Amino acid sequence: MSHAIRIFTHAVSMVFRDLGATLRATSVGVILIALASALLIAIAPGLASGVTTFDDPEALAQIPNFGLVVPAFFLMAIGYLVMIAAWHRFVLLPNDRRDEGFTPNAGIVLGYLGRSILLGLAVGLLAIPLFVVIGIVGAGAGEVVASIVAIPLIALMGWLLLRWSLILPACTIGRKMTFKESWEASKPLAGTIFAIMIILAVVDFALNFAMAAVITDNVISAIISIIVSVFYALVSASILTTLYGIAVEGREV
Fold this sequence. Notes:
By secondary structure, the chain is mainly α. It is 78% helix and 0% strand.
């Protein structure tokens, strides 16, 4: 657990110790997110802050210019991809390649997107039998027991995802890595990665709890929600970058 805590604190420090450098390296992605956020806030601040969801058809029906919501979310998704890929490159590119710039080209962004989709599909397929078990438990013992059973299963899925995810930072610096290579490289860190998943689950719970207490359906809340989301994404990317540096490049924390 101590190694996991060091990796987590190192990842947070990477983002915040020189915030100006962080924002300069990821500026293109951050600008895209800001533009998408401004559009989304203008259309529906409730969606931007997470108060209104797509599960609420009545609230969605009251949004003027709802047709602009999908392009805004698409632009935001591209912004996050560009930002995260740029952050991987900022940390991992060697000195003799840093003149290439950190903003990824279209090929890198598409490669990152494609690999992310493959990871999601692989973990999703493996999760199907596990969630069948959760459903059976829920039907027989109730939702509370099913929720308790779901916690370790969800943690297991997150562990698998992180073990395979070294392919993502690899692709941003031009290295082709397979799922098998990522799995083998991360094998010495298997226990540490599981501990990191526990830390992330606790942090995510605490953030959601805090945000639920202060977020409402207004512009300020929407801005706060987006800023928190951006920095959480950067910290998560930093964890993955750090794991790649340790497992593949032999770096020290």
